[in-house]
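B., you asked whether I could sanity-check this one before it goes into the benchmark set. Here's the sequence:
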Amino acid sequence: MKSYHMSMGAGLDGLVLRQHQTPRPGSNEVLLRVHAVSLNYRELMILQQGRYPLPVKPDVVGMCDGAGEVVKLGTEVTRAQLGDRVIASIFPRWIDGPFALARAAQLGGSMDGMLTEYAVLHEDALVAIPAHLSYEEAATLPCAAVTAWNALTGGMRLKAGDDVLTLGSGGVSLFALQFAKAFGARVIATTSNDSKATRLRELGADEVVNYHSAPDWSAEVRRLSGGTGVQHVVEIGGGSTLPHSLKAVAMGGEIGFVGTVAGGTSLIDANAVFASGATLRVVAAGSRAQLDSVTRAITVNGLRPVIDRVFEFNEAPAALAYYGEGRSFGKIVIKVTG
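And here's what the prediction gave me:
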């Protein structure tokens, strides 16, 4: 079998293909034939930027997101059967409840990940794939979809009629748009061009703000929300967008702070945080219980992930390079096996 390995700060050229013996599962583990993986911004942080808030072991098998078929069972496994189509929680020890350091072991970080032909996973991490999804679609769920779900439901609960602000057209933002609409919420999305704005409306966005033509986009968001601001913000940008999100959120609302994709080094104004009257909540993906909720919601509503492009296994470095260009609309997927 073959696996792609990476190390902190190694750069895209540091994604190395290695050959191994196919592993054997332990008593409560399964052997998964991986069919597809999807990319997340964490991979660029680890490889290109050399920074990540959680431990990353040297020469780790990369990627936290993957979907596959159970092909071998450990002797004590009860939560899976041969042939099951499954995905795995990216934090295999985080079953439910709040996030904690004791539950922070992560696929593609302190544990080997999913960019491999075969992976050994603990049975407790596994969740069944919605029947209407392909392996490529299912591979997008464990990180981005769960993060969006946690951002909308893990703190202040999303209600029908709430206003939700999503930023851009990455995986988390698009899942947040789809979930918010399924809850009966009203979605205001931001984007950089008219073409993406059209696609966001097709996915259900009620209003779209082009932040290039409206640099003071938080004021436009407040106007579109009747002057009161939005109840929920799914904040993926960081230093360059968070100040705007603090101005766009309603008094008593919540900003789910899920990442720093847009970068920026501007300091957070403590007065702005206080004046917002809102909760700023850091979101670290989610638990297996939340992944279960995601798959149920996707099944009931017949939702399909938005995939920008699918690469072959031998094109993994090209997939990361393409993702790093920042022009995609939706998820980038690598097909591992047919």
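One thing to flag: The chain is about 25% helix and 25% strand. Otherwise nothing jumped out at me.
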